[in-house]
Amino acid sequence: MSPYAHCIYDQLPELNHLKRIILQGRNKLETQIIARVSHKNALFPIHAITLGAQDRQLPCIAFIAGVHGVERIGTQVVLAMLENLVKRLAWDNSLVDELKSVRLVFIPLVNPVGMLRNSRANGNGIDLMRNAPIEADEPVSYLVGGQRYSAHLPWYRGKKDQSMQTESQALSDYITRELLNRPFSMVLDCHSGFGFNNRIWFPYAKSKQPVPHIADIYRLQAMLKHNYPHQDYLFEPQSCNYTTHGDLWDHLYQLSLQQNENTFIPLTLEMGSWNWIKKNPLQIFQATGIFHPIQPHRIKRVLRQHHVLMEFLIKATRSHQNWNNQDNQTEDHENAITLWY
What we know:
The chain is of the alpha/beta class. It has helices at about 15-25, 70-90, 95-100, 110-115, 165-180, 215-225, 250-255, 275-280, 295-305, 305-320, 330-340; strands spanning about 30-40, 40-50, 60-65, 105, 185-190, 200, 235, 265-270. A hairpin with a 2-residue loop joins strand 1 and strand 2 (about 40-50). The longest helix has 17 residues, at about 70-90.
């Protein structure tokens, strides 16, 4: 039986778009439903799509989106990238060669029920980015840092000692299984709704202390600035803005540190959606207006804007041995501390 028979794809344009991409690339993609989430007698799938090298000793990068259901543009950006790759595989020999030495993972819609309901939280009212079993090392911002008072308030973590939600557990299990046991892996998790700048956040969210791989992250951002000087991404630890409990990428990063010499770098793209509101103030009165560009030309601009970043990260992952090394480790660590801490 077709996996599409178990759920209603047509209720969500993004899910329907993903189905079309999967069908278009059915001879080139590996697809897996890592969980199904029930809502109103329908089952909504969480898809993981992979392509590229099979060898687990080779590097891997995952593109994630839709953790917050109201932030549709993140899912659309990841879908646009996946669709571009599927189309290019029909003629682009350089891409075919590239995929022999790197593996790509796409999980474009982690929280389908939240997106269906135009909600940041999932169907149980729980914020999946406050749901991991990890506590902040220092005081967090009120409410935004994660709260256990009520699912009727934003940033709800769920009850204490409650298991992770289906969506966050499925994502965590998949990343642990497919990425953390590799010598090098990276994640880009696409969000929107914070500030005027496009930010790239890295752990920790739980602490203002630098992560052990801070020198590697410093080299990565330096490479992006050097090779793409006209890009406007602002690299920074999330804790520069606020600290939180329950951050999923903090949790997975901590798990990765148990993998001996392996390197795992989780990044979060925070698209500067306040710019969209500045240019079109009336969109603030629409359901998703704070998190999504409303004007069609702005949607197209965002969909192409982050393509360069994603291509860069694929190439950086594939070529990690050329920059993810011990050369100038002390100097890069000191530069990172000066820049961010």
